[in-house]
Write a structure and sequence with these properties.
Distance between the termini: 37 Å
Shape: globular
Structural class: alpha+beta
Number of helices: 3
Number of strands: 8
Number of domains: 1
Largest sheet: 5 strands, antiparallel
Strand content: 25-35%
């Protein structure tokens, strides 16, 4: 049996086999997830349960370039799988990270209906993102009062090892809440894409 870290390495090889992109986006991340399910899971999305990000956190990432200082990446935490609207649903919180700084966070829900992927994306909530970033900057300054103005990338990226999220389901609405900052992101799986 393969170790989890081996699966992550394998994932990176699979995604870069055709040539790595210079920039990751939400759509390139979605496509990579679908490709992984098709190739590694033979169409069974349950294969996503075993994929991890660094730190062995369940998730799925797409790296734009080898050098993180120049790269645009999509890092997604798998917050859980739930039955929503009578469909098994994988729920991800996706962060777009450019030059090691998070630029956007959105909640994404993936359902496979009749063997085909159906995505629902929450909107880009600027207030939630600002509250998340502000919390992490304050945390750095509390821990390093003599640290100066520059906040290190470890406090500006997504996800951070210390991040904890709650996933709530109310009918067809999913909500992710960052425990530390109180930031929330939502997506509704009913209706149009």
């Amino acid at each position: 049996m393969q170790s989890k870290s081996h699966r992550v390495l394998l994932l990176a090889v699979v995604l870069c086999a055709g040539g790595c992109a210079t920039s990751a986006s939400i759509s390139s991340w979605q496509h990579a997830v679908e490709q992984y399910v098709a190739q590694k899971g033979n169409g069974d999305p349950n294969v996503l349960r075993d994929v991890t990000l660094s730190g062995d956190r369940p998730g799925f990432g797409v790296i734009g370039e080898d050098d993180p200082k120049k790269s645009s990446d999509a890092n997604a935490l798998l917050l859980g799988s739930r039955v929503v609207n009578n469909q098994p649903t994988f729920v991800y919180l996706v962060g777009l990270v450019k030059a090691m700084k998070v630029q956007q966070i959105r909640l994404a829900a993936l359902q496979y209906v009749n063997g085909r992927p159906v995505w629902k994306l929450g909107h880009d909530d600027h207030k939630a993102l600002a509250a998340y970033r502000d919390y992490n900057k304050r945390l750095y300054r509390q821990r390093n009062p003599q640290g100066g103005k520059d906040v290190p990338a470890a406090y500006l990226t997504f996800p951070r090892d210390e991040d904890r999220f709650d996933l709530n389901v109310r009918g067809t609405t999913l909500e992710a809440k960052h425990q530390q900052s109180g930031s929330t992101w939502q997506v509704n799986v009913a209706g149009k894409k």
